[in-house]
Specification:
The complex is a heterodimer of chains A (633) and B (381).
Chain A: H1 5-47, H2 49-60, E1 61-66, E2 73-74, E3 80-93, H3 100-110, H4 115-127, E4 133-140, H5 142-151, E5 158-167, H6 175-178, E6 180-183, H7 186-191, E7 202-206, H8 207-211, H9 213-217, E8 221-227, E9 233-240, E10 247-250, H10 254-264, E11 269-275, E12 280-287, H11 293-296, H12 301-309, H13 318-321, H14 331-340, E13 350-352, E14 355-357, E15 364-366, E16 374-376, H15 378-383, H16 387-407, H17 430-437, H18 443-450, H19 460-471, E17 482-486, E18 493-495, H20 509-524, E19 542-548, H21 561-567, E20 571-578, E21 585-591, H22 597-613, E22 625-627, E23 630-632
Parallel strand pairs in A: 2-10
Antiparallel strand pairs in A: 1-8, 2-3, 3-4, 3-5, 6-7, 8-9, 10-17, 11-12, 11-21, 13-16, 14-15, 17-18, 19-20, 20-21, 22-23
Chain B: H1 2-16, H2 19-26, H3 31-51, H4 56-77, H5 81-105, E1 107-109, E2 112-117, E3 122-123, H6 125-142, H7 150-168, H8 173-189, H9 194-206, H10 208-215, H11 218-228, H12 239-251, H13 262-265, H14 277-310, H15 314-338, H16 357-374, H17 376-380
Helix pairs in contact in B: 3-4, 3-14, 4-16, 5-6, 5-7, 6-7, 6-8, 6-15, 6-16, 7-8, 8-15, 12-14, 14-15, 14-16, 15-16
Classes of the chains: A alpha+beta (633), B mainly alpha (381).
Chain lengths: 633, 381
């Protein structure tokens, strides 16, 4: 390519022209593009600044609920029955996990993850949203927390959450009364105030925990937090603190409760101790007990099966829901009914041959004592628990009188205790039988009602409260589990008020005194059925033994052959109060298949009364100062 | 006569220079360009400190890269344009060979074959081509009188298209577009007829569907679809662009302040120290800060154009013009993509983004510009 100089020079000028022209065009295009860019930036940063600022704030600020601290539960001695302990939960946010299987495998190498854990995890996965943490393991110990924390960077989406979880330091003690909390289930979720429970995972299921859920739970708090794109909290912008739940002081005396539980030992049964002066429930025992701590972190299905299908029915609160024939313990009430309705004089005597027969009836109604009690008046009839005397009295009273008189002591009605799930027992009447069984009332049924058998059913709680009424000459109160409600903010305690029930009317005080004397004789009489417990008594007990027949075994119950004999044994009962002169404690006890009330039930009641009465029974409830979560007496 | 005048004027100008500037001229450094680059690098370090979450380590590495890049720039500035012109076919040939090598035995990096492992360091041949293609095209076109005739035009087009396709095949759409445009700029500045320009634009528009269906990779198609409507996949491919527009928009007029950008510091903004660093800058310094940044860019580009216009031979003029316009494309495409008016193509913001190879290339280009500017009088004399 050869060019001569002339050509090059000429071209150079022309080329410069072209170039300058083109550069000018390029410059114009660039200016145009820059204006485009600037208008875009102005559009974003000036025109729509507010819009994007909002989006940016939404990006980084989210509202997180803070769960309130659940109220504590104390007994009357200030002993903690339910508290909150820090516990660590391993959670996985599915959205942030690249390979879930790998992550689970990795975690499985670090800490133990059971099949149960995985099963629950997979179940929860379907319920929760992708960006919510799904718990994989509860209750990591310190070592496990350390092991996982070190590896958290390699485990995106895995978090360890510290939260307070419920703990029952006394374990099985009073488990039925205190109850337990457990995970909120779907049915509960629908009923709950979703906002207040937005950070709460557990809810009271039974007992005090259930009944006082609203007070114990408290009010949820909120915090505005700055998060990064992964949802990790970087900074708290502001917060509304949650309001802790209220502390509860129970009337329950755990020492009394413990003595009762120990004394019942392997027996199934129930005991209720009440202060007759105000209805305070001093002990509420249902045996066997269970460990409420099992439920807090999700009970394994194996354990739950064990508890729920056991023929001993440990989850069943017998004191509140067990409905038993009262047996002979009903006799003082029947006797009082006879006196007060003027159908009987206290000195009326009856000859007891050991059996009783109705007119035009072949059947013999037997006395527990084969040879009979011979000449018997009311006091003797109660002291020695003569059945024949009460067959006759029942017939004299008639079922209508009996049922309406007993209703005044709360038979057939819920006591109104501050515990959910109470049952009402059964106060049979002509009317009741017609309506429920569509059958007429037979005179034989009146007889056996007179000794607390037949249709009549009472819960141990009802029995205790009826005993309280008789011990206080007609005065009785709604049984109360809770003594006081404490505000955690200022430690102030609001005491619950004693709620009197309608007094049982008194016709003649002497009638009451007669029956009370007879009850004292049960312990102190030469032939008293509970005379075995009077040795070395430092106060006076009055009471009544009972032995209720067991008619059959529940169809679904599975018992071994040698156990059948035991299960066919009578229930042993005892109701009592002390001191006789000025009662402070009333106890009703039923020992399932325990045999005789005098030998199986009364000694336990004495131990309970000893514990309570010999240890400063009028002592004030011990309350605590709450300062920043520190509990001090 | 015109050129004699201008050279005489330059000579006089040379005499008027202060001793400091004379020194700079001896080392072939153009002061206005130098100041612009220093300013830009400084702004880059400031915003990188924030984008990198106050990582001194990151700043150190960026500083080392800048330092190396400055040395490269000064070194390149010492090369006379005439020497460069001699090297052009060799550089281009070696570049093409290396691109082929990359395709055959290149390492797989980030799902694309871009790197050539030379034992001591890894080298991206496409970076060499960013310089080699405009130089080669300029050399080839400057050989003959301008505007180029048809035969030369076709040959020049092939020179541009071959490396473009080789790089697009890697696949590296961003770089291949940059290289294509650097070549095309040479053609345009050399006086490519308007008729041809509009015909090509028309043909390209018509063939867009073919391009779309056969030449684009799935992820590239996805990027363009996402660009057209980022909300279709807000957590997937639209995430980048949504978060970066939020970052820019929420910056407002004055910005949230240095180190206070929430979008970036809270991890919402991806690739915030590399391709999306502009979003961090706008979030923290606002519209006013952005204006300042653009002003520095405009100053650099203007200086580049002045150098091109003042260049004394066609080759230098074409090279300087093309490199300057390509630099503008860099800036425009990056800011355009981050602010959501262009689809996402992986291009850094020149001299601001954290990263190595492209910075060295850009500085080498500035070196060429400086060489063209400071060697003028010699050509004239």
């Amino acid at each position: 390519m050869a060019f001569n100089n002339h050509q090059t020079l000429k071209d150079h000028f022309h080329e410069t022209q072209i170039f300058n022209q083109r550069i000018l065009v390029a410059g114009i295009v660039m200016v145009f593009l820059l204006i485009l860019l600037l208008s875009r930036l102005a559009y974003l940063q000036i025109t729509n600044q507010k819009h994007y600022a909002t989006l940016s704030d939404n990006n980084r600020v989210s509202i997180r609920p803070i769960p309130p601290t659940r109220g504590l539960i104390f007994d009357r001695n200030g002993i903690l029955l339910a508290q909150n302990l820090p516990s660590f939960t391993l959670e996985i946010v599915i959205e942030h996990v690249d390979d879930l299987d790998k992550t689970l495998e990795h975690l499985g190498k670090l800490i133990s993850i059971s099949k149960e854990d995985l099963k629950r995890f997979n179940k929860n996965r379907r319920k929760k949203r992708r960006f919510e943490g799904i718990p994989l393991r509860y209750r990591l110990n310190d070592e496990e927390v350390a092991i996982v924390s070190v590896q958290l960077n390699d485990l995106p989406g895995v978090n360890i959450n510290a939260q307070l979880s419920r703990h029952y330091p006394q374990g099985k003690l009073a488990s039925h009364a205190v109850g337990y909390v457990s995970r909120i289930n779907e049915r509960e979720l629908r009923k709950l105030n979703a906002s207040n429970y937005s950070a709460t995972t557990h809810i009271g299921k039974v007992g005090i925990e259930r009944t006082y859920e609203d007070l114990l739970h408290g009010q949820v708090g909120f915090q505005h937090v700055e998060t990064n794109a992964q949802g990790r909290i970087l900074r708290v912008l502001d917060r509304t603190l949650p309001v802790s739940g209220k502390n509860l002081y129970l009337n329950l005396d755990s020492k009394v409760q413990a003595i009762a539980e120990q004394s019942l030992g392997d027996n199934n049964g129930a005991l209720v101790a009440i202060n007759p002066r105000n209805g305070a429930v001093l002990a509420m025992v249902s045996m066997p007990v269970y460990d409420p701590n099992l439920f807090v972190h999700g009970i394994s299905s194996k354990n739950y099966k064990l508890l729920s299908t056991s023929p001993e029915r440990p989850l069943f609160n017998r004191a509140l829901r067990g409905q038993y024939p009262p047996g002979s313990t009903i006799k003082p009430f029947i006797g009082l009914a006879g006196l007060e309705l003027k159908l009987l004089q206290s000195h009326d005597e009856l000859n007891c041959p050991g059996w009783y027969m109705l007119k035009n009836d072949e059947r013999r109604y037997r006395d527990w004592k084969k040879r009979g009690h011979k000449k018997t008046d009311l006091i003797k009839a109660i002291t020695e628990s003569c059945d024949v005397y009460f067959y006759d009295l029942a017939l004299t009273l008639g079922i209508d009188n009996m049922s309406s008189y007993l209703a005044q002591f709360g038979l057939g009605q819920k006591t109104g205790i501050d515990l959910r799930g109470e049952l009402a027992g059964l106060n049979p009447s002509r009317e009741w039988k017609r309506r429920n069984r569509n059958l007429p009332w037979f005179p034989g049924e009146t007889l056996i009602t007179g000794i607390g058998q037949g249709f009549m059913l009472m819960t141990p709680l009802q029995l205790a409260n009826a005993t309280a009424a008789i011990s206080k000459m007609g005065e009785h109160f709604k049984p109360r589990m809770v003594y006081g409600i404490q505000d955690q903010q200022n430690s102030q305690i609001v005491e619950t008020k004693a709620e009197p029930l309608k007094n049982v009317p008194i016709n003649d005080e002497n009638n009451w005194l007669t029956v009370l004397t007879a009850m004292k004789n049960v312990v102190y009489g030469v032939h008293g059925t509970a005379r075995g417990i009077r040795r070395n008594l430092k106060y006076t007990i009055a009471g009544k033994t009972g032995t209720a027949q067991v008619f059959g075994i529940a169809q679904d119950a599975e018992y071994k052959k040698e156990e059948i004999a035991k299960k066919l044994q009578d229930h042993a009962l005892f109701i009592g109060f002390a001191p006789y002169e000025n009662p402070r404690i009333v106890v009703a006890l039923i020992v399932e298949n325990g045999g005789h009330g005098g030998s199986a039930a009364a000694p336990i009641v004495r131990k309970v009364m000893d514990q309570y009465l010999l240890n400063n029974p009028d002592k004030k409830v011990v309350t605590m100062e709450i300062n920043n979560g520190e509990v001090t007496p | 006569m015109n050129w004699q005048n201008s050279s005489a004027m330059n000579f006089r100008e040379e005499n008027r220079l202060s001793s400091g500037r004379r020194l700079l001229y001896r080392f072939h450094i153009d002061l206005p360009l130098w100041i612009g680059i220093i300013l830009l690098s400084a702004m880059g370090m400031v915003v990188l400190y924030s984008a990198g979450d106050k990582s001194i380590d990151l700043l150190n590495r960026q500083f080392v890269r800048l330092f190396i890049a400055f040395i490269v720039m000064i070194a390149v500035a010492q090369i006379k344009p005439s020497t460069l012109k001699h090297w052009a076919p060799w550089m281009f040939g070696v570049g093409i060979l290396m691109l082929v090598a990359v395709l055959v035995l290149g390492e797989v990096g980030k799902g694309a074959q871009r790197w050539l492992n030379l034992g001591i360091f890894r080298f991206q041949p496409s970076e060499l081509m960013k310089i080699a293609v405009p130089i080669m095209t300029a050399w080839y076109l400057a050989e003959a009188p301008l505007p180029p005739r048809r035969g030369r035009l076709i040959m020049a087009t092939i020179i541009v298209i071959v490396p473009t396709l080789l790089i697009a095949k890697q696949p590296d759409l961003g770089t291949s577009l940059l290289i294509a445009s650097s070549g095309i700029f040479v053609l345009l500045l050399a006086g490519l007829g308007w008729k041809i320009i509009f015909t090509v634009i028309g043909l390209m528009t018509a063939s867009a569907p073919i391009f779309w269906n056969y030449l684009l990779h799935d992820y590239q198609r996805q990027r363009i679809l996402t660009f057209l409507n980022p909300e279709t996949d807000p957590l997937g491919s639209g995430y980048h662009i949504i978060q970066s527009t939020i970052a820019i928009g929420s910056g407002g007029l004055y910005g949230k302040g240095w180190l206070n950008g929430t979008q970036s510091h809270l991890d919402f903004l991806p690739e915030r120290s590399t391709d999306f660093v502009f979003a961090v800058f706008s979030e923290e310094f606002g519209f006013l800060g952005t204006l300042l940044l653009l002003a520095v860019y405009i100053a650099i580009i203007s200086r580049g154009i002045i150098i091109a216009v003042n260049a004394q031979d066609t080759f230098s003029r074409l090279v300087a013009g093309s490199l300057t316009l390509t630099f503008f494309v860099y800036v425009f495409v990056n800011i355009g993509m981050v602010s959501g008016i262009l689809p996402v193509v992986g291009l850094p913001l020149p001299l601001i983004s954290y990263g190595g190879t492209s910075m060295v290339t850009i500085m080498a280009a500035f070196g060429i510009l400086m060489s063209i500017q400071t060697n003028r009088k010699l050509v004239g004399a």
